[in-house]
Amino acid sequence: MEPMRILYISIEGNTRNFVDNLTAYAHQQHEQDPANPLVEGTEISDQTDFAVETKPYFVTVPTYLDGGDGIGSGVTELLTNTLGEYIGYKNNARLCLGIFGSGNKNFNAQYCLTAKRYSRMFHVPFLADFELRGTDRDVHRIYADMVARSAEVLTAK
């Protein structure tokens, strides 16, 4: 069984920490039952060479915005643009199974706005959110979401 793949960008290290915890949790689940899939994270950065994706993947993206209130226009994405460009490269978006968002709830309507914008832009489901580095409960929930979404897509084929 192939690992479930998750592409991410991490500015302050919160998203990287979350993906590391998700990967470790998946490893524990796989050790308990080899039918449980592993998770493989790939960090996208300004130094990443764009490639054509050939296997399904998930995305997790934090929110860094300038301007606007998250409801109207005037929002400018900061620092995470490279991940959006990577998803939009060639036909990469067609293999994206879903997007997870992270952010800080103190930013109200802007919370997870980048992930929600990517969901609309690339026509993929926004699956879940977590705040900052996430909690163990978030890791367990998002792993279950990834497993369920992967099974849903495989069943549909």
UniProtKB/TrEMBL annotation:
Q: Which domain of life is it from?
A: Bacteria
- The regions listed as transmembrane in this protein's record are none
- One matching Pfam family is Flavodoxin_NdrI
**Which NCBIfam families does the record associate with it?**
PRK02551.1 (NF002714)
Q: Any idea what this protein is called?
A: Class Ib ribonucleoside-diphosphate reductase assembly flavoprotein NrdI
Species of origin reads Fructilactobacillus hinvesii
